[in-house]
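Most newcomers find our protein records easier to grasp once they have seen one. To make this concrete, we reproduce a full record directly below:

===
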Amino acid sequence: MTTSLVVGGSGGLGQYIAERLAGRGDDVIITSRTPTRAQEVAAELGPRARGLAVDLARPSTIADDLVDINEVDNLGRDRRGGRRTPRAA
């Protein structure tokens, strides 16, 4: 059984990656800053997916957010990273 963790998997490129991994039969864990969004997308992916709230802008909380994950075979993330910053005009 392959387990894939997709950081930012609740939308955009991250969700696309999560969908492809779930489609090939992986157990998929997706993260989002918003717990309800992570859970909604995980439900759409099927019974082998789960969603977790993880905020990369708060590094001190990441280990606690991921404490229930024992093993990950693949790690993916969307290209934005975890912090939204305004662009200069």
About this structure: The CA atoms of residues 23 and 45 lie 8 Å apart. The chain has three helices and four strands. The radius of gyration is 13 Å. Residues 3-56 form one domain.
